[in-house]
Specification:
The protein has 20 helices and 10 strands. The chain is an alpha/beta fold and 590 residues long.
């Protein structure tokens, strides 16, 4: 019951009203059926005894009690539903904050994505809803209270019958529990295939994939992959449903045996005139309801136990390593920035190969650094480690002589502004995509600065709502679908708006013509010249204005110097530069 206990503790901290109303509803709902089978006994005995007035009085009590109890339960359910929504909001907000602060290396791993899906089995119980494990456990408690009341009634005429029913109940629970354990194993294996079938299904409904699917005739392959993983899922579902059907068959068999034995006892008592007709009605109702209740208790208890099996995955999921830490040490923004990598190595989660290996380098505040090299050489990994989007696997990164892990995470990352090749635009306004603050507007001075250096085209300024124009049509049919160039301009404008101490451009213009890329880099350089800047590119011609160029290869820095110095060395940089220059020259001639 670890999952149930966790949920109770969480609800107690976040929404005590949720627990209070659910407990009241549980108590009221659990006693209602017992009261409603007791009253008919008195009605029948009074009617058979000729006491019409008493029979009518009991009937009125029955109707009024039924109305009050059910109305009360409905209003308690209504109130609990409101608190449930508030509790769900609190949980989702807490989870969102945890994920936004978590180690990116873990979030990107395939193992984490599978763990998340297992954790969601506990959180949402296969679509039954948030907190289903708590609701089911409370329902088990409710049904158990009612069942105990029925047991007390049955015990009055046959203790042996109570014992027989309990034996069948224990057997049913053990069988159902074992079946659910096997079902969990099947579902764990099924998760990989569900992720794949879901991915391929999402592709078919995402129009951004359709051009390539149609042009390159990918449809047959895509449909084959979908069919394969859906077939695998179908076999898993068949196995799970087969076990479920077997469990239902046993449960129904035990239910029929319990009823048969019980009716034999009660009929014998009635024939022997040892009970009245009212008693007969009471005992039959109690026995029937008890047998039915035990089936429901078994079903709910097995469900609680089955989803509780995922609680371990859930605990690991919510206890993700947090990048923030507890430090409140801040970066001295008044000082010149000095950076040092000391034997830094890094490899991504799940990978045996190092993306960066034994990198050692010192960088001063006056440097304007270009980082070049072929794809996969470690360029982006280097700047992501510097920004502490990841932590090194080995070694240290020092800023102003302090290990960056000793700084306040929020304060440290705030000194950076970056534009990545895979930059993100959000389904909100152009202005909010630039300011990244829904309370802040783009002021005219900043818009003018962008226009002066050509980083905001007339196309964007010509939109009817200007900076209030929505990006994408997800929430606004009047929104825009920005072209690659427009998207890059918005992302670069966002970077400049932050006015950070260290600026990074990580190949956001890689899809553009080399000359256009060079022009954008120059414009960006002009506006950030007072700051320490890094320009990442695999095009060597775009970085001539940098006073220092780092050449990466296989996760290492193999050359370090200015453009002219590296050309004179006739090393890797010189070879790549001359090769690319020849390619661009040939392209211009054509």
């Amino acid at each position: 019951m670890q999952g149930f206990i966790y949920f109770v503790k969480y609800a107690f901290i976040k929404q005590k009203g949720f627990l209070a109303l659910n407990l009241l509803k549980t108590l009221l709902t659990s006693l209602t059926p017992v009261l409603l089978i007791y009253v008919p006994k008195f009605i029948i005995d009074a009617a058979i005894g000729g006491d019409q007035r008493r029979a009518v009085a009991y009937a009125v009590i029955y109707v009024v009690a039924y109305l009050l109890l059910n109305t009360g339960a409905s209003w308690l359910q209504y109130g609990a539903g409101i608190y449930s929504s508030k509790l769900f909001k609190a949980f989702e907000m807490d989870m969102a904050e945890k994920l936004l602060d978590a180690d990116l290396g873990n979030l990107e791993s395939s193992a984490f994505k599978e763990q998340r899906e297992r954790a969601e089995k506990y959180i949402y119980a296969d679509g039954y809803g948030f907190g289903y494990i708590f609701i089911s456990a409370v329902e088990v408690i409710q049904l158990c209270i009612t069942a105990l009341s029925y047991i007390f009634i049955i015990f009055n005429f046959s203790p042996l019958l109570v014992l027989i029913n309990l034996v069948f109940t224990i057997i049913s629970f053990r069988v159902g529990g074992n079946i659910k354990k096997l079902e969990k194993q099947d579902r764990d294996a099924q998760i990989k295939h569900e992720r794949r079938s879901s991915y391929y299904s999402n592709i078919t409904s995402d129009h951004t994939f359709h051009k390539d699917i149609r042009i390159f005739s990918y449809k047959p392959s895509l449909l084959r992959k979908m069919a394969y993983h859906y077939d695998v899922n179908t076999r898993f579902y068949a196995k799970i449903n087969r076990r479920h059907a077997f469990s239902e068959m046993l449960s129904n068999t035990f239910y029929a045996i319990q009823l048969g034995i019980g009716y034999a006892f009660i009929i014998a008592l009635l024939i022997g005139r040892r009970i009245s007709v009212g008693d007969f009605t009471l005992y039959v109702s109690a026995l029937t309801m008890y047998a039915s209740l035990m089936g429901r208790i078994l079903e709910k208890a097995v469900y609680v136990r089955s989803y509780d099996m995922y609680f371990h995955d859930f605990k690991e999921y919510i206890n993700l390593q947090n990048m923030k830490g507890q430090s409140d040490v801040k970066v001295d923004r008044s000082a010149l920035v000095s950076i040092e990598f000391k034997n830094v190595s890094f490899r991504y989660v799940g990978s045996e190969a190092y993306a960066l290996k034994n990198v050692s380098i010192k960088i001063s505040d006056s440097d304007r650094i270009a980082i070049v090299g072929e794809n996969g050489s470690g360029k982006t990994t280097f700047v992501k480690l510097l920004m502490r989007l990841y932590d090194p696997t080995e070694g240290q990164i020092l800023v102003n002589g302090v290990d960056i892990r000793e700084y306040s995470y929020e304060d440290y990352i705030d000194i950076f502004s970056a534009v990545f090749q895979d930059y993100s635009l959000f389904a909100t306004t152009i202005g909010e995509n630039i300011t990244m603050n829904d309370q802040l507007k783009v002021d005219d001075k900043f818009a003018g600065e962008l226009s002066e250096i050509g980083l905001l085209t007339k196309a964007i300024l010509s939109y009817p709502k200007h900076f209030e124009t929505s990006v994408y049509k997800i929430f606004d049919d009047q929104g825009i679908e920005p072209s690659g160039g427009e998207g890059q301009q918005i992302a670069i404008a966002r970077s400049l708006h932050k006015k950070a101490k260290i600026n990074i451009l990580d190949e956001p213009t890689a899809a553009l013509d080399p000359k256009i890329e060079y022009e954008i880099y120059q414009k960006y350089d002009a506006i950030t010249r007072k700051n320490l800047s890094f320009f990442v590119s695999h095009r060597l011609g775009s970085c001539k204005f940098a006073n220092r160029i780092l050449v990466f290869s296989d996760g290492r820095i193999i050359e370090d110097g200015s453009h002219s110095e590296l050309l004179r060395k006739n090393g890797v940089y010189s070879e790549l530069y001359n090769y690319q220059a020849a390619l661009y020259s040939a392209a211009d001639d054509e």
